[in-house]
């Protein structure tokens, strides 16, 4: 049954739709901008983190990424899709993460926590010294980060990038994995040529929502898979280091 509170909430959401500059042009998927997303966007807008929304950079099942403007500087806005994201998988991963023991059980709670988790992972990764998009702020299921790109647009994913020295790129990504493990105490967990952008001569690791701390039961398995993915992609391009050697180096032979 509808009550006055619901009506007022709907009215507020309708107002937000017209207030958020650029939003009316985003017809990608109507269900992206449910009321919580709108409230999140509105909050970020009223606090000045976003000045106007631009077009989509990427649309997926878990999240959409939009270009947005912050006082003349481009930023990337990642919006987790509260309706279509794989909530069950997120729940499995997040409940084993000690940083997130007290989150609620609803779909919304889990997706909001996931957004917070990606923010926190990016921050830890950045602090350890590797190249990732600098995370600016998050609200509900909306994460704002630096836009990785230049005057030609967003940096390409590694699979589409052109680089001269494959060995140097491979070595740099492998070093990122090592630094993540040793300093940030994190494993990316979904590393691939899709989740690495390449620009200004360097690889940038992105998409860190699923990254876990070393005490997570998935950590060793994730590390092995990340290393295998990296070697698969580069195997024809340059010489690669055996996955077992890196596993030995980072976590000892017990994990193989
Ligand atoms: N900070 C950013 N700057 C520029 N492009 C980005 C940024 N973050 C994501 N993208 C683009 O959006 C795509 C999807 O982002 P990602 O974080 O991998 O989300 P998904 O969960 O949908 O895979 C990326 O492959 C990249 O092309
Ligand atoms: Mg991705």
TrEMBL record:
Top EC category: transferase
Keywords: ATP-binding, Kinase, Magnesium, Metal-binding, Nucleotide-binding, Serine/threonine-protein kinase, Transferase
Protein's UniProt keywords contain tRNA processing: no
Pfam families: RIO1
E.C. designation(s): 2.7.11.1
Gene3D superfamilies: Phosphorylase Kinase, domain 1, Transferase(Phosphotransferase) domain 1
Similarity comment: Belongs to the protein kinase superfamily. RIO-type Ser/Thr kinase family.
Record-given protein name: non-specific serine/threonine protein kinase
